[in-house]
Write a structure and sequence with these properties.
single chain; 9 helices; 153 residues; mainly alpha
Length: 153
């Protein structure tokens, strides 16, 4: 934000809520993941294979708590907008736009498709961000997530 504001860069990749703040200041958003229907693996839950085998109940508890938090975030828009506004010291309008944009990137089942994930890994490898190709189907295990999601219903 500072570099854009000072004119020392022509463009920048900004995360929430900074992208919204800059559009409110008159800057134009020239590209956005949701505009291109892109999903990104910007967060998630990871654990070691040994932990999955030794303590599946503990891993499921973390997944369950994550689903509960996501359900709360979807259900309690006003609370979330106030939290965002207070946490980042931004206006309620910017906080609400940030919330909407964030919510648009969330999945209800907590998953990104293996194909989309493979595309992300392939792009990272092609850009030399990771040293070797990663077979998404071999590193992603949704079995416990699927179990927890079925329990929710």
């Amino acid at each position: 934000m500072q570099s854009l504001g000072q004119g020392s860069v022509a463009a920048a990749v900004l995360s929430l809520p900074h992208n919204v703040v800059m559009t409110q200041k008159g800057y134009r958003e020239i590209a956005s993941g949701p505009d291109f229907n892109l999903r990104s693996a910007s967060g998630g839950i990871a654990t070691h294979e040994a932990k999955l085998k030794k303590d599946p109940a503990g891993v499921k508890a973390v997944i369950r708590a994550t689903f509960e938090a996501m359900d709360f975030n979807r259900r309690e828009k006003t609370w979330m907008v106030n939290y965002i506004s207070n946490k980042w010291k931004i206006s309620a309008k910017v906080a609400e736009e940030s919330y909407k944009s964030w919510l648009n990137g969330c999945t209800t089942d907590g998953k990104i498709s293996i194909k989309d994930l493979q595309d992300i890994y392939d792009q990272a490898f092609a850009s030399k961000l990771i040293p070797t190709p990663v077979p998404a189907a071999q590193v992603m295990d949704y079995s416990l997530t699927d179990e927890v999601f079925r329990e929710k219903k």
